[in-house]
Amino acid sequence: MPRPRFGWRVLWSLCLFCCLALTAFAQNVVLVPIHGEINAQTAAQLHRSLATAQQENAPVVLDLDSFGGVLTHATAMRDEILASPQRVVVYVHPRAWSAGALLALAGQDLVMAPGSSIGAAEPIPATEKTIAAVRGEFAATAERRNRSPELAAAMVDKTLGYPPYAAPGTILSLTEQQAQAAGLAQTSAGDLTTLLAHYGWQNARLITVAPEWSDTLVGWLASPWLQIILIAIIFVSLFAEIKTAGFSGGGLVAFVATALLFFGQWQIGNPSLLAALMLAGGVLIILTDIFFAMTGFVTAAGIALCIGGLFLLLGGSSSALYIIAGGLVLSIIVFWHLAKHLTTGRLWRRLTLSQRSDSASGYTSNDDYTFLTGHAGITATPLRPAGTAKIDGRPYDVVTQGEFILRGTPIIVRRVIGNRIIVAARSDGENEL
Q1: Is pTM beyond 0.85 here?
Q2: Domain NfeD-like C-terminal spans what residues (predicted)?
């Protein structure tokens, strides 16, 4: 009896080992559903997806359905797909137009659903410069994946045409069957299950990377209007920090606004080490000027370094210049509004002490030397133009109106402003009051 019991134990152990081995070596596939506009949110989603695929050493299936979107984000996503070491299969279901077509061309494999279409990528505005740039981007992407660059270029530039699918003067757009006949798509699949079976991934564990709240936040942070507001907040806060002795809340607010900008760019795979170094260096220079009271040129250099860092952080394009210029204009408007209305508002009166401690109320902030006006004395030291003089037998710190007076020269007090005793050389015959 002990032998059969031992045999069952061995059999169960082998089964458990096989199950664990199959689980450990099971194929993982990362599924990325991108449906709708190509924007910063989808760019952040793709960035996370490719990072997950590389971590899991898994291929990627990009489930694509898009009418197009923002070209800058589409090109950034295209660059990430081309640079990824993982296999990327793009499943057009049911359309990939405009910017979506660029993503479809970037994948190693292109699979289209029956009734789907791809193309129609003429940029808006359709200027000669924009068409040339986007046409080159499409052609280069197709060449990288061993597809026809002429076909890809015809999706952008209607003057080219691509017979027999599009005559010159017509933008190229292909159906699923036309894409296969033209050598653009490898195969067709009615659903995701069919696609996975085609590649032998029917038993794979799907890791779906759906949009998250962080992607939505990145979408907001990538809005040019919000970026203009954040940059204005940075400039206003830095100005408040510079004008305030020591460290105030302005520096903290500027840091938070900069961190939000950097977070948004980092999430879409557009971080810049040089931009971070320039921003950090600019802030350190400004802080050095604040705490050590250096020249204004030091602060100007720090601000210039921060602006350069922001330019690189936002992509280093003409759009970045427009955003920074908009932030500067908005910050100037805020400065003007604060200078004109802040000190007269009800909130300011609540936050500040309205009671005055002036001379009319019997207060003095220093010694009153007005009684010396018209009194005569003699210089105890040379006045260059400040020095010491004896007036009525007592030493006082005095100053001239710019002239130098030698020691031992008779002087007379012309006037007193605060604690400044202003004197002049006493002329012959001038009498003391």
Answers
A1: no
A2: 372-423
